[in-house]
Amino acid sequence: MRDVILSLLAKEPAHGYELRQRLAKALGPAGGALNPGQVYVTLSRLERAGLVQATEVPQPSHPDKKVYELTASGRERVEAWLSDVSWSKVAPLEFHLKLVVAATTRLADPVALVDAQRLELLRELRELQELALREPPDSDGALLLEGASLRLQADIRWLEVCERRLLDKESR
Amino acid sequence: MSRVIEARGLLRRYPAAGSPIRAVDGVDLVVEAGETVSVMGPSGCGKSTLLHLLGGLERPDGGELYLDGRRVDRLSESQWAILRRRAIGFVFQAFHLVDELTSVENVELPALLLGVARPRARRRAMELLERLGVAERAGHLPDRLSGGERQRVAVARALVNQPLVVLADEPTGNLDSRATGDILRLFGELREARQTLLVVTHDARVASIADRLLTMRDGAIVAQTRLGAGTSAAGILAVLADLGEG
């Protein structure tokens, strides 16, 4: 979340509301689902860490607004973040462990676990698709949803591999 | 609600060395009018055979099949031919368009075979091509079309006689990601229009569009689940999971 906020300030300074608009544009419906409070909490943390500095700008007939901009170290951090190649959630480790535990302890039927998990992922996929259909096809939001959808599809395909393996074992 | 399809104990065997394989092994299934149903399962689980049985492309070795309340498992081939034309729209993986006919001629053909007057059949075909976004391809032969366009023409053909049910067998199996997206959008519209639809597929995206998902294994339906329109925002949460805390 910190890097998201920092990176959205890289183009030019912004006040809180502008920042939320940038977030909504960059992330589409996923950005809209973010809690606004989270943005402000993150901004004040970044300020305390010296990555962002805030300036009070007086406004006629409105309370002063705070405009946030990157500090030199904030900008450095954005540059480091852009070239960092770490990638999240590579393997569905936890579900894999569930299968191993189910098969060895017989506390649950592994095939039933696969079925239930697949249904859950299909439900998520359906929601992502419904959201994607409502987004302009060329928007940044649609591109992000496509990425999320492809990951889910890969996970569903892996569940099919799990299923085949389990059924082959059963029939042997 | 009326039952468009009802199968009881549907059975289909294929001869094999040793004992025959039960491709479809006692399937009970009801599809209500206006419902969208998807069938998933590993290769060889019998899902395509089930679709062939429901559409009268193969005959069952046992069980009963009703279409719109009428028993059809004992119909002759010629009776089935009429029934298929009138009541069922097929969409196949390999499109099965007639190569010598243009798009609009492919679409109007089932209507003409049913005895619809030529101008009316043409009008209906053009309306459908319009609706599916391929009207500008009306005069082209299938080999001039992209895969996605061919499948949209095939869907138009499936709809031309306002069928009771559309049966689709791996409709996106030959399509790239973008064309698959078009077909998904289209099936979503059919669902909203309450067109009864049963689709057999490997593609999770296609399967997830249905109201109800059936899982097949070894010729039997082993799970049935209502997918429904989600309100849990799980999809969005899945996207945001990577953002993490402040």
Quick recap of the structure?
Chain A is mostly helical and 172 residues long. Helices cover 69% and strands 11% of the residues of chain A.
Tags for this model:
heterodimer; A: about 170 residues; mainly alpha; three-stranded antiparallel β-sheet; 8 helices; elongated; B: about 250 residues; alpha/beta; four-stranded antiparallel β-sheet; 10 strands; globular
Verbal overview:
With 172 residues, chain A is mainly α. Chain A has helices at residues 2-9, 16-27, 29-32, 36-48, 72-83, 93-105, 110-134, 140-171, and strands spanning 14-15, 52-59, 62-70. A 3-stranded antiparallel β-sheet of chain A has the order 1-3-2. Chain A starts with a helix and ends with a helix. Chain B is built from 8 helices and 10 strands. In chain B, a hairpin with a 2-residue loop joins strand 9 and strand 10. Helix content of chain B is 34%, strand content 26%. The interface between A and B is large, with 41 and 33 residues.
Question: What sequence of helices (H) and strands (E) makes up the elements of chain A?
Answer: HEHHHEEHHHH
Question: Could you report the average pLDDT of chain A, rounded to the nearest whole number?
Answer: 89
| Low-confidence blocks of residues of chain A | none
Taking the alpha carbons of the first and last residues of chain A, their distance comes to: 49 Å
Tell me, briefly, the overall form of chain A: elongated
